[in-house]
Amino acid sequence: AIINGARNLAFYGGHNPKCWGAIDAVYRWNWTFWNEVLAGLVREIGAASPLAPALVNPGSTRTLATDDPSVQAVSRRGAGRDLWVIAARSGEGSRSVTIRGLPSALTGGQVYTEGRSITAAHGSLTDTFGRWDVHVYRFRLPHPRRSA
User: Fold this and answer.
1) Which string of b and e fits 32-54 if b means at least 16 CB within 10 Å?
2) Are 84 and 113 in contact, with CB atoms under 8 Å apart?
């Protein structure tokens, strides 16, 4: 949704008894879904998250090229020198995917919430995606050079 320009995300159904388990029925709301899915998502993309400045900056969106037609990828500027890349894959199976169109000065970044690093070179990065995988990458743009 974010890659395709969504301005907000809304979740409904927590109040629907057909969605409740036994514990949820006691509290008359789907706390299981909140605790297992939504609470983590809100921490990852909510207003207090490191990603939030990029999410509210849609004017900085750039569509990035990939070597897999089932992968969509965009970059967005965040706070300070942060550049975020959001990529999602719908294709079957798992495969290595190259994303191109990044600034050529980028060398490495972090995969947001996954606790691992990613290398960028010559304006591209390569990572493994399974079906329905979404990866979010955080890079720091280099300081601009000052002219003499």
Assistant:
1) bbbeeeeeeeeeebeeebebebb
2) no
Contacts of 16 (CB under 8 A, 6+ apart): 30
For residue 148, name the pLDDT band (cuts at 50, 70, 90): low
The whole-model pTM stands at: 0.86
Q: How far apart are CA 26 and CA 21, in angstroms?
A: 9
The region that residue 146 occupies, defined by phi over 0 for left and psi between -120 and 50 for alpha, beta otherwise, is: beta
Mean pLDDT along residues 30-59: 92
Both tokens of residue 138?
Answer: 């955080």
* Bridging pattern class, strands 82-89 and 95-100: unpaired
